[in-house]
Amino acid sequence: YKTNVDRWHYYYLHLPSIAVIDFGSIDSKEKIEENQRHLGTQLFALHYLTPVSSNCTIDRWMHLRNVAVGDHNASEKINSMFKVAFAEDKKILEAIQKQSDQQQNNNPVHIAIDKGSIAYRRRIEELIKSETSL
Questions:
Q1: In sequence order, what E strands does 1-134 have?
Q2: Cα-Cα-Cα-Cα dihedral of 71, 76, 80, 81, to 10°?
Q3: Cβ partners under 8 Å of residue 29, min gap 6
Q4: Cα 32 to the center of its chain, rounded Å
Q5: Which of 6, 18, 109, 128 has the fewest CB atoms within 10 Å, counting from its CB?
Q6: pTM, entire model
Q7: Do residues 45 and 63 touch, judged by C-beta distance below 8 A?
Q8: Percent of the chain clearing pLDDT 70 (strictly above)
Q9: What confidence tens digit (pLDDT) does each residue in 73-111 have?
């Protein structure tokens, strides 16, 4: 777009291990409702997470979009950009995991941004308890 746009970036977690990122934009003059995001440029990054151990997970991903559908060159370009972004994420997540593994303090300090990951861990613990209490 060569004008002002409204952007969105939503994260959805489908327990236990599917994450969907819905993001995109539309000309701000359009004044769309939230359920009309498909009228703009909309992409979904889907992550299928497979735990391997208590501190290692395989992240398989793909993307869907409503623009340049069927355009192989666009697919390659978008996949390339995602690979760069997800490689950066991987480095950060591995550094966090390494620090967490070395942490001697069993009572870490959490800040507001940790709310999502804390809620996720609690829900996973609840699912594990429900499976083991049968």
A1: 5-14, 18-27, 41-53, 56-65
A2: -10
A3: 3, 4
A4: 24
A5: 109
A6: 0.79
A7: yes
A8: 97
A9: 999 999 999 999 999 999 999 998 888 888 766 777 889
